[in-house]
Each structure stands twice: as C-alpha cells, then as structure tokens.
Specification:
This protein is mostly helical. α1 runs antiparallel to α3. The longest helix is centred in the middle third of the chain and has 48 residues.
C-alpha cells in the first residue's frame, strides 16, 4: 500500500515530515467527519430533487419523478462515499510512504545521514551548492564525493523502500547494527 516515489518525494518528506503528518491527520479527520455527517445526505437529496421538482407539473408526473429522484440520490450518495473513501485511501497511502521513508532514514549510516541533513534539512533548496562547499571544508571531502554519497544514499533509500521488508524489520536492522557495533567495540 505504498505509493510510487521519486527523489523529490524523499526530499520533501525529509524536510516536511512533521508538518505534513499534522496536515494529513487534519485532512483525514475532516474526511471522516464528512463521511459520517447526516447533513451530507440531506444536501444530496436536496441537490437531487431540485432540478426535477416543479410545482406546475401534474400530480401523476411528480409520483414517477419521486422514483427517479430516489434513484439519482442513491447513485450520488454512493459516488460521494466512494470519493471520500478514495481520498482517505490516498491520505493513508501517502502517510505510510512517508513513515517508511523515515524508518529507512533512521537506519542510514552516520555519514549518509549527515550528508542528507546538511543538504536538505539544514539548508535552503537554492543553497545546496553552498552546503556542499561548506561540508567539503568541514569534513575535508571533495564535492564529487559528497554528491556520490548523496546519490548512493538516495539509491539505498529507494531500494529499501521497494523491498519486501516491513517497517519493523527495517527498524530492527538499526538495533541489530547498534548491538553489533557495541560487541565489536567491546572485544577490541
């Protein structure tokens, strides 16, 4: 139930995860409330009946129109509920995709996370070149090396994203790495 992503989605998720999560929760709450509202049915019925009902028509004509009004109402109601449910599925899909990206971000190496942090989280989109230059001087790295690390990190995120691993398994990899590192340090 994950959506197709690209590097732009990954970068946008890293930059705006918290704010976007709040926004998606509000939207989901709004849609859920709309789905459960009784006034929605009343509005649909009024909208369905309005074009057909005319007081100047004969009484027998109105009786046959009631059946048509009800049929149109049922169709519109089903369509409206399906639209709301579809939007809710899209919201859930986007949130789950963002959660998966953040889980993968948590298991990245320190150098990979540092590069992404400095390039995308702590600098403006226009100043990526400046961030690369600053990282080059801070860590004594050539700009091409920084770009290579960024490219490899994005490829790593995409490969984990498309893998069959669950988010729990991905996060478990981080704790396994931490335990392995502690054990290696312990026996040195």
């Amino acid at each position: 139930m994950y959506k197709e992503i690209d590097q732009e989605f990954i970068i946008r998720t890293l930059r705006t995860y918290d704010a976007r999560t709040i926004e998606l929760r509000r939207e989901m709450s709004t849609q859920y409330t709309l789905l459960n509202m009784q006034t929605l049915d009343d509005e649909l019925l009024q909208a369905t009946a309005y074009p057909i009902y005319s007081p100047s028509e004969a009484r027998h004509q109105m009786d046959s129109d009631i059946d048509e009004i009800y049929t149109r109402y049922i169709e519109l109601s089903k369509q409206r509920v399906d639209d709301i449910k579809s939007l809710m599925r899209d919201i859930i899909e986007e949130q789950e995709s963002m959660n998966r990206i953040m889980a993968i971000y948590e298991i990245l190496d320190e150098k990979e996370r540092c590069v992404l942090d400095r390039l995308y989280l702590h600098s403006a989109a226009e100043k990526i070149h400046d961030a690369v230059q600053q990282m080059g001087t801070d860590y004594d790295l050539h700009p091409q090396t920084i770009y290579r690390i960024r490219r490899k990190t994005m490829e790593k995120i995409m490969s984990f994203y498309k893998s069959d691993l669950t988010q729990t398994e991905i996060l478990h990899m981080r704790t396994q790495d931490a335990v392995c590192l502690k054990n290696k340090e312990k026996y040195r």
